[in-house]
Amino acid sequence: MARSIGSNFLSQLNSSQLRTFYAVKMRFTSGDLLLSTTYSNIVIDSETYIGSGNILNISQISETSDTKASGIQINLTGLDSSILSAGLNDNVAGMIVELYFGVLTTTANADAVVDTPYKIFEGFIDTMVLDEQGMSSSLKFTVENKMIILEKPSDRRYTDEDQKELFPNDRGLEFVASLQNKSIAWGGGSKWLI
């Protein structure tokens, strides 16, 4: 999907009538879950997104001028058993989520998507909470921005063993351990412990 706005998309945004929607692609191991905030199914890049209307709720998306990972929440309410079982049976942590903003035509073919929707968010599912109340169920997904990876510390070490995991024939860190308590004569002959 596009990361830029097409000319037809832009002209639709500037028109007097506007029909917007959001589309969510959740990539589970059992297959993609494609949902939109429209009331009928729509096709984007040869993929059919299920019109979810009021059962799909997306939290506010915030952007800052700082390099900061801001997440979102996606709520699915009034779920049928097939979507609910996919959410419960899959290991959802770390699954990719993409969120798109698009517009529909306002002419005769009312559910036609104009150009290619704009990707406004991409991230990973952090947690999923199931809420069952009587006859209805809802799933609440907390999705972290993909920039969250920048905040995770590296678990790599500057040791010979760690380097050889990546490059088995590299001998660049072979003598690091022997340098730990090495006594080196520096300057006028006196010894300093490094």
Task: Give a brief description.
The chain is mostly beta strands.
What does this 3D model show about the protein?
By secondary structure, the protein is mainly beta. It has 2 domains: 145 residues, Thrombin, subunit H; 34 residues, no CATH class. 12% of the residues lie in helices and 38% in strands. It contains 3 helices and 11 strands. The strands form 2 sheets. A 9-stranded mixed β-sheet has the order 3-4-2-1-7-8-9-6-5. It has a two-stranded antiparallel sheet with strand order 10-11.
Task: List its traits.
single chain, 194 residues, mainly beta, Thrombin, subunit H, 2 domains, 9-stranded mixed sheet, two-stranded antiparallel sheet, 11 strands, elongated
Shape: elongated
- Protein structure class: mainly beta
Overall number of domains: 2
Summarize the main sheet. Answer: 9 strands, mixed
- Straight-line N-to-C gap: 55 Å
Query: What is the typical, i.e. mean, pLDDT?
Result: 79
Report the sheet-strand fraction: 35-45%
What is the CATH topology assignment of the largest domain? Thrombin, subunit H
Detail the poorly predicted runs: none
What is the percent of helical residues? 10-25%
Radius of gyration: 26 Å
Number of strands: 11
Q: So what's the CATH class of the largest domain?
A: Mainly Beta
SSE string? HEEEEEEHEEEHEE
CATH architecture of the largest domain: Beta Barrel
**How do the strands of the widest beta sheet line up side by side?**
3-4-2-1-7-8-9-6-5
Tally of alpha and pi helices: 3
